[in-house]
Amino acid sequence: MPRVLSGIQPTADSFHLGNYLGALRNWVSMQDTHDCFYMVVDLHAITVPTDPEVLRSRTRASYAQLLALGIDPELSTLFVQSQVPEHAELGWVMQCLTGFGEASRMTQFKDKSSREGAESASVGLFTYPILQAADILVYRADEVPVGEDQRQHLELTRDLAQRFNGRFGETLVVPKAHIVKDTARVVDLQDPTSKMSKSTPTGCVFLLDEPKVIEKKIKRAVTDSVGEVRHDPEGQPGVANLLSVIAALSDRSVEDVTAEFAGGGYGPLKTAAADCVVAFAQPFAARVAELLADPAELDRVMDAGSQRARMAAAPTVADVYGKVGLRRPV
Ligand code: TRP
Description:
The chain is mainly alpha-helical. About 55% of the residues lie in helices and about 5% in strands. The chain has a three-stranded parallel β-sheet with strand order 1-2-3. A two-stranded parallel sheet has the order 4-5. The relative contact order is 0.14. Tryptophan (TRP) binds next to strand 1, helix 7 and strand 4.
């Protein structure tokens, strides 16, 4: 089976509907067809100032949520990035292979650093994409399921793998981006022209929100002045969003769901959307609470995942070290 690797940052207390329908749902289903490596990327989270206790609890909560969503730690290798030192080891070698100008062209760094003020941005934020490349290359992953926003980082990863192989001989697998087609690109409930994001909490449904909060957010979702349900993502993006959320969560086609609500008002559509989301979120939240209530067992699963990840990562680092003239003790 081809190997996939992906990661998610522990930067919120809860994943949101966009994370789930846009990416994580696909992580779960890829387990049937791929050898999957999934991780919580806490080393990437500290590229911006982060409170230690908040980071610790979000890392655990993220891991528990991945389990609750259906990532099976027997089928997949599910781990926490910082518990696998090989990422940092390969990361350094990759940094030494990356041109300063090349790193300077990464648009996500430019966006993020200009938001924070370029002077105060950390060097870690600058080298973020190179650590990401190491994350992928250290497992010799064939495919990387990521969103469109990560395309440039994937290109860098491929360039670095090819450069290493060209300079030192065939060693690394050149991975392919598996850009998740936005079957369900969930948009912000308050601003349906932009992607759902945790930075606008009123427009974002967190999977661990209380049912009442979920209902309220969806009832207040911005629609339009057409006043009638149709599937028109351009002209009626808010309505189209609710239709595709219902479709995705109930495993139906958007056409089918649209036919059910077509011509009607927005009230029943919102009620149905809220019902679908709550029906998904409630058992999910209960499962997460159960997992977090047994910290020793959660630690055991996390440690086992990290051990398994290290077994896969260590030979690559040993190989790479040998090729560049370093030696990694066994
Ligand atoms: N940069 C990715 C994001 O923000 C997270 C990430 C880190 C990642 N390392 C990775 C994704 C390796 C895929 C593969 O979404």
